[in-house]
Amino acid sequence: MAERWSPHHLRLHRHLLRQPALLPQGGVLLVALSGGQDSMALVALLRDLQRLHHWDLQLWHGDHQWRPESGQQASELEAWAQSQGLALSIDRWSAPIHREAAARDWRYGCLIERARELQASHVVTAHTASDRAETLLLHLARGSHRRGLASLPGQRELGEGLHLVRPLLIFSRQDTTQICEDLQLPIWLDPSNHDPQFSRNRVRAEVLPVLEALHPGASRRINTLAERLSEEDNHQGELLALALEQLRSAEHPEGLQRRRLIALSPANQRDLLQTWLQADAELTLEAAPLNTLLARLARDPGPSQMDLAGPWRLQWDRTTLHLKIQPNAEINP
Q: What is the C-alpha separation between 125 and 168, in angstroms, rounded?
């Protein structure tokens, strides 16, 4: 891959200079490569900027085995990466489940494991501003808490010493199309990106085009809103963490003082509960179950419980809320 320079290279370079912690100089980066236009644009830009930032670039591809030709695509991607002098590792899903959430969990599990093996400090994905606009609309339709609307932040922790980074959030999908055309990059199309059974595809094909027709630039403004909400959420998180410490039970440090919590305004109750659940169980409740929980805490003075996502159960008595992992015997087969 010959070194090239374009307005897109300059834009990303300046973005990284303004936020040096995003992709630190000399870091080991594990870049997720699907073969689609966004990830190909990401790899090309990072490869061309490598001489300025001195990264060790490592590529990863996940073969979901949803399609008969996925193995062939993985082999072609591997050959392309070798021709560019880039190292590509491939994982194949041995027991594929045809659901978006399951595929996402599998991908991130593989990426974390591979990053640990390579001693990478950052996992890099090719999410764009268009992806973030779609995600915000989906969360809005589901009745997400405000934190859910602050979707796809530019950076978040994947684990101790490991960060997930999305440097292409400053670009739209139209931008990555142009980058691939300008740099003459090969693209491997995934038919599942047009499958209407996936909700994101319907938002992309049916909802956003209508919004753009009604209000040109809608996707860009939605993305800007998500970015602003993410920044505000980060700043508010510092204050919520301090407030949360005041609500933790002295007798049970892992618990939360019920009476002090329900004495607050409903908005503060929601924010503090979400902060507690995220900090202690990495859970985020959608608006409906969160409001149900708050109503029960205010209405029922006695002890009770509520099953949350995964293995978690919230139990409470008159004074304290506790998070518990459900015993296996109580989990329905």
A: 8
Collapsing DSSP to helix, strand or coil, 318 comes out as coil
Residues 6+ apart with CB under 8 A from 251: 320
CA distances (Å), 14 to each of 24, 192, 222, in order? 13, 34, 23
**Residuewise pLDDT in 10s, the chain (333 residues):** 445 889 999 999 999 999 999 999 999 999 999 999 999 999 999 999 999 999 999 999 999 888 888 889 999 999 999 999 999 999 999 888 888 888 888 999 999 999 999 999 999 999 999 999 998 898 888 877 666 676 778 888 888 889 999 999 999 999 999 999 999 999 998 777 777 778 888 998 899 999 999 999 888 898 888 888 887 776 777 788 888 888 987 887 888 999 999 999 998 999 899 889 888 888 888 888 888 999 999 888 889 999 888 788 899 999 999 998 876 534 333
* 201 vs 207: CA distance, rounded Å: 10
Q: Collect all residues with Cβ–Cβ distance below 8 Å to 268 and sequence separation of at least 6.
A: 243
| Residues 59, 122: Cα–Cα separation, whole Å | 12
Judge whether 257 and 319 are in contact, CB under 8 Å: yes
Taking a C-beta distance cutoff of 8 angstroms, is the pair 112, 126 a contact? no
Residues 207, 124 contacting (CB under 8 angstroms): no
Q: What's the token pair of residue 223?
A: 């993305």
Positive/negative CA dihedral, 277, 281, 287, 290? negative
CA atoms of 333 and 329, how far apart (whole Å): 9
3-state secondary structure of 29: strand
SS3 256: strand
The length of the chain is 333
Q: Is 190 helix (H, G, I), strand (E, B) or coil?
A: coil
User: Following DSSP, what letter does each residue of 162-174 receive, concatenated?
Assistant: EEEE-GGGGS-HH
One-letter amino acid for residue 296 of the chain: R
Q: In angstroms, rounded to a whole number, what is the distance separating the alpha carbons of residues 207 and 197?
A: 15
Q: How many CB atoms lie within 10 A of CB 96?
A: 15
